[in-house]
């Protein structure tokens, strides 16, 4: 993923501390290496830059299975808002740990979180996991049906985010960055939107917002604010190169052009979109020069926090939508989850490719499974046949988080047990009722 997109057939990488010190042919690097260099033999494996998930709700991990086969309003009002409003900071930390384990097992070394309510819980989890993360808080200063405990003024919503920035930005040896979050135009006043962007500019970070997700949203914006979502954001003057817009399903061609003109970054979440949102014009955006990346969304919207599966879906659904098998080629999709994602997260000087001086965020792929062999066209295989199970080892900042499928940074078994108990307790506190799909025999 360097500027020339070189792939070494027999390559080697020298890691020094948290950075990549050399990249080249294996024979040459091995010969040059001093005797105290620790050698890791990856013969037969593939080494990729760490994958970057640009939209994942880590604090929704315990809500996996709470949102299946229901309308969006039921999803929000009867399932997810009650769930999120009953979460404690500790719940949020363990939920983020569980999500982080799934991310690491799927080759993700960096993610962007659009925001739950407890940034401290998420920050704690990122610190423990050794992964890289951009955190934000979900802000809402208006909207119908919100739980009472979330009532806050525009100023309060801004103050909490500034406090989060001051507490978390640059923490965990620089692996955490704090951004500003906007939930959706349904829940954000124009004042909050404009002032959030001003703060992000002032602190030199980004804004993460769900944009043009569903048809009702653009209709709501048209009626209440006088223009559809993206056109309205453009009128407010908040579109810019530090604006990460998620979903972006209901957009006109003119609005796509507004994104291109303002260098807005997009996170495409194909699984979540196919459920209730619709089909985003992703190939058209890329054609217009928009930087498009891929995210998983949250566990109650997708159920698989597996970026590798989203790569495959991104490859498939646009071919089907456009009846064009040449749409979304595999090499573009690999760029979307590495170098393009790094650019979208304003972090391309340090991550997104295997290059000298960049952070040692690396993923080892073992292709020797019945699901991935043979490797006639390896780049295509990475997108169309790879599974999380092919991810063998994951390194962030020069440290193995997972080695030969063993998680080294946290006690995985304990997190799984604690997750079961906490998730069940939240659902009980929130009074969420799920229908029995089949007759239960006790
Ligand atoms: Zn989302």
Polypeptide structure, described:
The protein is an alpha/beta fold and 442 residues long. The protein has 17 helices and 16 strands. A hairpin with a 2-residue loop joins strand 14 (391-396) and strand 15. Helix 3 crosses helix 17 (412-430) and helix 14 packs across helix 16. Zinc ion binds at residues 55, 57, 114, 210, 246, 297-298.
Which spans of ≥5 residues are poorly predicted at pLDDT below 50?
Answer: none
The structure class reads: alpha/beta
Roughly what percent helix? 40-55%
Distance between the termini: 54 Å
Overall mean pLDDT stands at 95
Radius of gyration from CA coordinates: 21 Å
Enumerate how many helices there are, as a single number.
17
Q: What is the general shape? A: globular
The largest pleated sheet is described as: 5 strands, antiparallel
Which ligands does the model contain, each kind named once? zinc ion
Number-wise, the strands total 16
Strand order, main sheet: write it out: 3-13-14-15-16
Strand coverage percent? 15-25%
What distinguishing features does this structure have?
442 residues; alpha/beta; 5-stranded antiparallel sheet; 5-stranded parallel sheet; 17 helices; 16 strands; binds zinc ion
In short:
This protein has 442 residues and is of the alpha/beta class. The chain contains 17 helices and 16 strands. The protein has helices at 26-32, 72-85, 89-105, 119-129, 154-168, 190-203, 215-225, 229-236, 253-262, 270-277, 282-287, 299-302, 307-322, 330-336, 339-344, 378-384, 412-430, and strands at 11-16, 19-25, 46-49, 51-53, 108-112, 132-135, 176-178, 180-182, 207-211, 243-247, 265-268, 291-294, 362-365, 391-396, 399-403, 406-407.
């Amino acid at each position: 993923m360097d500027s020339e997109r070189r792939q070494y057939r027999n390559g080697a990488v020298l890691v020094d501390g948290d950075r990549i010190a050399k990249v080249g042919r294996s024979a040459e690097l091995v010969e040059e290496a001093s005797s105290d260099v620790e050698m890791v033999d990856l013969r037969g494996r593939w080494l990729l830059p760490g994958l970057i998930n640009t939209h994942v709700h880590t604090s929704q991990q315990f809500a996996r299975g709470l949102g299946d086969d229901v309308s969006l309003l039921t999803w929000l009002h009867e399932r997810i808002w009650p769930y999120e409003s009953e979460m404690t900071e500790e719940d949020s930390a363990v939920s983020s740990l569980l999500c982080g384990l799934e991310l690491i097992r799927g080759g993700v070394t960096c993610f962007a979180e659009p925001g739950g309510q407890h940034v401290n819980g998420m920050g704690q989890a990122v610190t423990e996991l050794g992964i890289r993360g951009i955190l934000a808080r979900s802000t809402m200063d208006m909207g119908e049906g919100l739980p009472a405990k979330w009532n806050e003024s525009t100023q309060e919503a801004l103050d909490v985010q500034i406090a989060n920035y001051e507490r978390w930005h640059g923490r965990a040896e620089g692996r955490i960055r704090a951004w500003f979050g906007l939930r959706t135009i349904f829940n954000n006043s124009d004042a909050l939107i404009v002032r959030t962007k001003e703060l992000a500019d002032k602190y030199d970070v980004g804004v993460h917002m769900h944009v043009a997700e569903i048809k009702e949203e653009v209709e709501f914006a048209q009626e209440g604010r006088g223009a559809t979502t993206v056109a309205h954001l453009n009128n407010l003057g908040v579109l810019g190169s530090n604006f990460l817009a998620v979903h972006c399903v209901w957009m006109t061609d003119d609005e796509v052009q507004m994104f291109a003109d303002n260098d807005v970054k997009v996170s495409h979440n194909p699984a979540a979109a196919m459920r209730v949102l619709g089909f985003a014009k992703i190939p058209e955006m890329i054609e217009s020069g928009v930087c498009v990346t891929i995210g998983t969304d949250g566990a109650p919207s997708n159920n698989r926090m597996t970026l590798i599966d989203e790569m495959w879906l991104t490859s498939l659904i646009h071919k089907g939508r456009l009846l064009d098998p040449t749409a979304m080629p595999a090499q573009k999709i690999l760029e979307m989850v590495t170098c393009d994602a790094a650019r979208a997260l304003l972090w391309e000087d340090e991550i997104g490719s295997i290059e000298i001086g960049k952070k040692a965020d690396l993923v080892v792929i073992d292709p020797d499974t019945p699901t991935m062999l043979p490797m006639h066209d390896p780049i295509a295989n990475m997108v169309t046949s790879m599974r999380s199970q092919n991810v063998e080892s994951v390194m962030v900042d020069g440290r193995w988080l997972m080695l030969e499928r063993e998680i080294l940074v946290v006690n995985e078994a304990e997190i799984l047990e604690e997750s079961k108990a906490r998730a069940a307790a939240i659902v009980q506190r929130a009074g969420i009722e799920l229908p029995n799909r089949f007759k239960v025999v006790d």
